[in-house]
Amino acid sequence: MQIYSHDEILNLEKYFRINLLNKISGIKSAHLIGTRNIEGQSNLAIFNSVIHIGANPPYLGFILRPLSVERHTYENIKATGFFTINQITEDIHKKAHLTSAKFPKEVSEFEACNLTEQYINDFPIPFVGESKIQIGLSFQEENLIKANNTILVIGKIETLILPKDVVGSDGDLNLEDVNGVGIGGLNSYYKCKRIGDYKYARVNTKIEEM
Predict the structure, then answer these.
(1) What distance in Å separates the CA atoms of residue 7 and residue 40, rounded to the nearest whole number?
(2) Could you tell me if 14 and 104 are in contact, meaning their C-beta atoms sit under 8 angstroms apart?
(3) What is the mean pLDDT of the chain?
(4) For residues 48 and 30, is the Cβ–Cβ distance under 8 A?
(5) Closest CA to 33 of 64, 79, 2, 3
(6) 144 in Cβ contact with 151 (< 8 Å)
(7) Per-residue pLDDT averaged across 32-57, rounded?
(8) d(Cα 194, Cα 189) in Å, to the nearest integer?
(9) With bands split at pLDDT 50, 70 and 90, how would you rate the model's confidence at 202?
(10) Which domains does the chain possess?
């Protein structure tokens, strides 16, 4: 068994520490966030921090690293007020990973990484054409996390596009059917596979009744 104290973690070699701490929270969601600047230049970036904020009204959020360097996604969202969240599938996960490279602002990751810049109805920001779950959002608020100067960005879902046959009669979404993937740490990708589907748990629920 390996036990690390707080101080020992801080003294680990930089990239060892980054890899270890990014992976201990387990497999996270894998999404591409699409934006545009006011000149119409598109941007696409991979994120593993998209989270559910609420269902009524429908909100999603994601974490941005500190603004100590240029953050094109953040700058574009603040300029236009809109962004898209696109689920990464197994088919495009390598292309999606390439968007993490530090492309200059004037380069569109859609083009550089060979992903389709898709506009749907009158939503002003491009979706990823290859993505099976596409979400268009309007910026609502940002919250500075003082502990490490990261930012929680919250958006309201304005439009949701997904295959009809993956939504159950109770609203349950089968992520396995859309071939979605998850991210472990920064560089490892995992397939989604359902291992169970259980009823609402109550205090007196027994394992054999689930």
Answers:
(1) 46
(2) no
(3) 93
(4) yes
(5) 64
(6) yes
(7) 96
(8) 16
(9) confident
(10) 27-194 (2.30.110.10)
Give the pLDDT of residue 172.
85
**Percent share of the chain, pLDDT over 90:** 76
| Cis bond before residue 126 (omega within 30° of 0) | no
How large is the greatest C-alpha to C-alpha distance in the chain, in angstroms?
A: 59
pLDDT at 173 over 90: no
Question: What are the φ and ψ backbone dihedral angles of 16, each rounded to 5 degrees?
Answer: -65, -45
**pLDDT score at 205:** 81
CA distance 133 to 159: 11
To 5 degrees, how large is the angle CA 145–CA 20–CA 196? Answer: 85
CA–CA separation, 197 and 53 (whole Å) = 22
Q: What is the pLDDT of residues 59-69, one digit of tens each?
A: 999 999 998 87
Contacts with 27 (C-beta within 8 Å, 6 or more apart), sequence order: 182, 183, 184, 190
